[in-house]
Specification:
CATH superfamily: Metal-dependent hydrolases
Distance between the termini: 34 Å
Helix content: 25-40%
Largest sheet: 8 strands, parallel
Structural class: alpha/beta
CATH architecture: Alpha-Beta Barrel
Number of domains: 1
CATH class: Alpha Beta
Number of strands: 8
CATH topology: TIM Barrel
Radius of gyration: 17 Å
Order of helices and strands: EHEHEHEHEHEHEHEHH
């Protein structure tokens, strides 16, 4: 049996240790370590060259461990969480350290800030000026409201988890349809990450629709290691097997890898 070529980039993981401070709003509090050395060993075990550390809402804007990881491992890039009042000098420093974007996540029922308001638009403009993208992990209603407001911002957008993890009404909901429209406008990419968190009988259909709408050049794959909340149900090999199953064409997977390399590393 031919072994599938592994992806070149894992565009979504989390690394942490148990001494890190949890945000007051953390939805769970892992009682174990998943340090960068463990993650890199997992990449090596499966033949994956590069990884992207994604800011976890569990730790709020405590980015210290992630930044220390980037200082030591040039095969990694990362997103962080930032206060909207962060200044351009700090953003430029983060970019130079290997930070490539800022993750923006709110509780599903939370109201968005005024996307036309000065504070939010200043934040987004500063991100764009620093060459940082905005990574959205939001509910369907939040995506539907925010994505059109980012149209004229000049910022690159990455939507986490198929755009469906928190989306009401699945592929026919307002959030997913807003993601498809945003992809068509040219500045939005979508991560096929954490497929194991979605309905197993629907995830292949989600992937197929995104491939048809976005093309592989605007899609990335991510494992979501260490699978917080699913640690006993999923391992790294299982996430790869799922990827090969929902994206069965080897050329499509390779084009996704090339797109992730260009976006995150070059």
């Amino acid at each position: 049996m031919t072994v599938p070529e592994p992806p070149v980039v894992d565009a979504h993981c989390h690394v942490f240790h148990r001494a890190m401070p949890f945000a007051d709003t953390a939805w769970t509090r892992p009682d174990y370590d998943y340090r960068v050395e463990t993650y890199l060993a997992e990449l090596d075990r499966h033949g994956i060259s590069f990884g992207v550390v994604t800011a976890a809402s569990l730790f709020g804007d405590y980015n210290d461990y992630t930044l220390s990881v980037l200082d030591r491992h040039r095969r990694l890039r990362a997103t962080v969480m930032l206060d909207p009042d962060t200044g351009p000098a700090e953003m430029a420093t983060l970019k130079a350290q290997g930070v490539c974007g800022v993750r923006y996540q709110l509780p599903p029922a939370a109201a968005l800030p005024d996307p036309a308001g000065y504070r939010f638009r200043r934040f987004v403009r500063r991100l764009a000026d620093a060459g940082l993208h905005i990574e959205l992990n939001l509910s369907g209603a939040q995506l539907a409201a925010l994505l059109p407001a980012l149209d004229d911002s000049g910022i690159d957008i990455v939507v986490d988890h198929f755009g469906l993890l928190r989306a009401e009404h699945g592929m026919e909901g307002e959030g997913f349809l807003a993601v498809l429209r945003s992809v068509e406008r040219g500045r939005t990419r979508v991560k096929l990450s954490a497929g194991f968190r979605l309905r197993a009988d629907e995830v292949a259909g989600y992937a197929a629709r995104l491939i048809a709408a976005a093309g592989p050049e605007r899609l990335f794959w991510g494992s979501d290691a260490p699978f917080v909340g699913f640690e006993r149900a999923v391992d790294y090999a299982a996430t790869l097997d799922l990827f090969y199953r929902i994206v069965p064409d080897a050329r499509t997977r390779r084009l996704m890898s090339d797109a992730a390399l260009r976006f995150y590393f070059f």
